[in-house]
Amino acid sequence: MIIRPLLDLLLFVAGIKLGDMAGRKRLLTKKRLRRNWLKLTGGFGPWSIGVLEGPDPFSLVDPGPSLNPVFTGADVTDVDALFVADPFVIKRDKEFFMFFEIMKRKEERGCIGAAVSQDGKDWTYLGVVLEEDFHLSFPCVFKRKDKIYMVPESSDDWSVRLYEAEGFPKGWRHVGNLLAGYQFKDPTIFRHQGLWWLFVSAGKNEITNLYFSERLFGKWTAHAQNPIVRLDRKRARSAGKILEYNGKIFRLAQDNSKRYGREVLAWEITSLSPTSYRERLAVPRSLVTASGRGWNRAGMHTLNPLKVGETWLGLVDGRRF
Length: 321
What we know:
Elements: H1 3-14, H2 30-41, E1 47-54, E2 81-92, E3 95-104, E4 109-117, E5 124-130, E6 137-144, E7 147-153, E8 159-165, E9 172-180, E10 185-192, E11 195-202, E12 207-213, E13 221-222, E14 229-230, E15 237-238, E16 243-245, E17 248-255, E18 263-273, E19 276-281, E20 288-289, E21 303-308, E22 311-319
Antiparallel strand pairs: 1-22, 2-3, 3-4, 4-5, 6-7, 7-8, 8-9, 10-11, 11-12, 12-13, 12-14, 15-17, 16-17, 17-18, 18-19, 18-20, 21-22
Helix pairs in contact: 1-2
């Protein structure tokens, strides 16, 4: 039935809630308005996943509507998905595995889904592979020797949780917390020069803290310069894995200075040690940004490049409204 949602929307404009016709005014909540809009349009939320192509990770372009988006909430078959976002990819043998956030429509809580591809463009959905009783997103997946791990965002649990693959890609076991006691956002982990490094965002997308450890399961120490990004929404929140390219390392970050999730910038890490951290803008333009139309009309906030043969692909998400 679309009558009730349609009346709700009409009365929202007037400031009157259905069933309250005596004159008392009350605005509908954002969540209810969003649900009603989806009922009317049959839509699957603002975010979907696309693939970009280019000669290098800094020159990726959209091949066009014939390809994108490559994955939407409509492709999720085992739960009622509001949208999909935050794509991360890892190659195993000759296949590409993508892990991403699935926002469950009714619960409005994220879980982690997976898909597989032979070429990085055509994806087959595998199902929900990780779910907790709190929100999960941003599934930063990585290899260490012969094992595969994942560090998703679990800020609602006030922790940075580490999962190990058992029965990859569908089986994941929680093996411990790297950090706890704060709402750490979009944790991004990588190994460099014999140490593990962990970036986490904090506050209202304006702070970045850095931690390091000699061992993945060891003690994590706060960097001497924390916060390494202070009061800067242009670069504080991570947008994907740390990128290593041409002997340099780059941190991809969301530019939230104008509004959340509009574009992604690349920052080259020029100094990284337990006592020193410096970075500089690597490219004087956004790597991906709102296109003004279509599936990514209003914004893009995750980018994970991968090399396929002689071509670079970029797994991205886009917001259409």
